[in-house]
Amino acid sequence: MQLVASVVRGLRRSSSGVALGAxxxxxxxxxxxxxxxxxxxxxxxxxDLTCQCGCGLTVHSCNHLNCGxxxxxxxxxxxQIATGKSREDILSYFEGKYGEKILSxxxxxxxxxxxxxxxxxxxxxxxxxxxxxxxxxxxxxxTGGGADRPGAPPLRGAQADPELRARLDRELAELERRS
Amino acid sequence: xxxxxxxxxxxxxxxxxxGIGASVLGALRRDARLIASGKHAAYAFSGLTGIAxxxxxxxxxxxxFNVEYVASYSSSTLPLWYTIAALWGGMKGSLLxxxxxxxxxxxxxxxxxxDKNRDQMPWVTATMLIVGAFFLSLLVFVTDPFxxxxxxxxxxxxxxxxxxxxxxxIHPPSLYVGFVSTTVPFAFAMAALLTGKLGDAWIxxxxxxxxxxxxxxSLGNLFGAAWAYVVLGWGGYWAWDPVENAAFMPWLTAxxxxxxxxxxxxxxxxxxxxxxxVILTFALTIFGTFLTRSGVISSVHSFTQSGLGPFFMGFLxxxxxxxxxxxxxxxxLLKSRNELESVFSREAAFLLNNLILVGIAFTVFWGTVxxxxxxxxxxxxxxxxxxxxxxxxxxxxxxxVFLMGVGPVIAWRKATAxxxxxxxxxxxxxxxxxxxxxxxxxxxxxxxxxAFSVAAFALATVWIEFWRGMRxxxxxxxxxxxxxxxxxxGKNRRRYGGYIVHVGVVMIFVGIVASSVFKLELxxxxxxxxxxxxxxxxxxxxxxEVEDDEHVERTFARVSVWDGEGQGATRLGEVYPExxxxxxxxxxxxxxxxxxxxxxDLYVVLGSYDPPTKLAVFQVFVNPMIxxxxxxxxxxxxxxxxxxxxxxxxxxxxxxxxxxxxxxxx
Lengths: 179, 666
Hints:
The complex is a heterodimer.
Chain A (H helix, E strand, L loop, with lengths): L1 H12 L4 H11 L13 H7 L21 H13 L4 H12 L14 H30 L2 H4 L13 H17 L1
Helix pairs in contact in A: 1-2, 1-6
Chain B lengths: L1 H28 L2 H30 L6 H6 L6 H6 L5 H22 L8 H22 L23 H16 L1 H13 L5 H31 L10 H26 L3 H24 L14 H21 L16 H33 L7 H21 L10 H24 L5 H32 L3 H11 L1 H25 L2 E7 L4 E4 L2 E12 L3 E12 L6 E6 L2 E6 L2 E6 L1 E4 L3 E11 L4 E10 L2 H18 L3 H5 L14
Antiparallel strand pairs in B: 1-10, 2-3, 3-4, 4-5, 4-6, 6-7, 8-9, 9-10
């Protein structure tokens, strides 16, 4: 998640990245699940593992009648918890025994780290592009670039007169207030 | 009848190919006769596809088991309603059904535009017929729904019991209508690119179609969730299965389009982006079809593994190559005014909303394809399941609901500090208050508190919009409250219909958060007369009965539901969770029984049952506020109806004179 954090820091420095920074700061808390040396509960570990019966659900959610995978796995989880192992150790045990596919989420190491980081990097990049685009458009509006560019119609009437423009703004604001 | 169906499909393909050629040549040579021929071919394509569907339906209803499809997906004891549903219950039938919906859309488009969009229509016709021809080619050359067997089985294999549920009779048709109707905006976008007429005429023409697609995608997803909830029996409704994801992704990009297109209509901006969203949405529907029919990713919802994957992948690549190529070719003509006075404006809020919607779509796509990617790169199969999607999408969902509150209220062009304060002080206060109440009531999950707070903020902004509008009408026109409200909505259906849709989405969001965070469950073996308590409810196992007919054996438990526990509990009623054993194919299913209130669903599953001892194992879930999801769906439908309902002006003025050339609508 360091990468995500650095992207967030970079965005926060840009003028348009404040709101996005807030969103991503929120998002950066949603990395891979922290298994650490946490004490495991049956429900947690069942949710961390995928049932192998083909239902596509976690062991916790699979309710197939006499499921050949889910029921033995639930028993095995209970046995592992009874030994006093941490959640991380229990997940390592199952990964070692059944392979990575038993885990319901990708691990946070090696190539799998991409599963967790790429969405946020993509959104951060998208945010950066949105920021750059907004900054350019603002600059265009500030300099009257849109109307002054080649081929654009000449400014006339209220558009040309700053006083009339200010009045138009006031009246539009008033209209919006009333509606 | 199978011969008639087969002939209709073959002729449909021939006619579609003719229509493509005539329309393209007609457009290039400006030959009115060829263009008219293309149009007639489009109608003929619709008629022939209709005949094919009727033929397959006839074969199903007459139980002609000599036809492979009928033998595989129906039986002589299958109830009539599910026999009709078998039309889309198998892969071949579903492809024909898809083509039929496309053909109906095509015919409607031809009728709607018989006096309009003359330059674009040949290209629209050609694009829609290309898509139709692709599907018909599959039916003619790869997977024939009218294929006859060398023998006639005495009985059919029957429809998969999991599909024998009322939600499955309406979920696939809704989803297909949503998927297929995205072809219409796509076809008009292609026509705009090909003709170089890239103003907002194509957007005006397809506005209702885009909303129509989005509406049916919404319904399809909700009906699918309802089906999973009542049939799969695991207490949930959404498992982030690849096929569920495939239906969700186009909904996300279509939602983004419905918002960003408003910026193009109002400000003449985002032309390239809108075009890209239309292409992406259509491509995602084909991607979804590829996922369900290729077997590349395993899913409980997918059809059996087939050889169709490469065809769909090839078609998808062709669509992307051609449409992106056209987009790049026309980039010089797609320059927009692109001026923004302030980042504190509705334009900027809508851009952020688009970023998040497309971001969620990408996240879902990434999580869906990552197992395949992992297998390619590392040779290791991994699982990307619900914990991943929930964890990654939860903050994005919260941010999206926050923007749903901001977008409608913030001013176009520029919002001043004063107007921001005036618009957001009360909603922000409401959000903080609701968050504080949730915390005071003992909610300690940070994201749940935040989600409720943000939902309250979004609802408050909508409420204030309605309230202010009503007050203005009351004070200026002296109208009574209900008159003011109905006329306020009637005068600006799109705006206020949109607000109603937002209310529906927020209700769904609240239902999802509450039912995910506060879900309670227990599993308990019980003897008759024993009871269990969960979340303020007591359930007592009263007895078990068996009903048997030629189609299915039903074992259902009688379980009484009580409010409270012990002596003071009040009896509310009974639920009847079932185990069914279907006789063709021999397959057990679980039928849950739900005691539903606005506060929570008591969801009771009969897990297993031992006939000699009558010992039954029950799973009981309390899913808080899940009813809000379904009510939110109804509100969403209502809001969409308000948006789509023609205004008085549209109904009163002839279509041809409605929009003067070169003008723009608000």
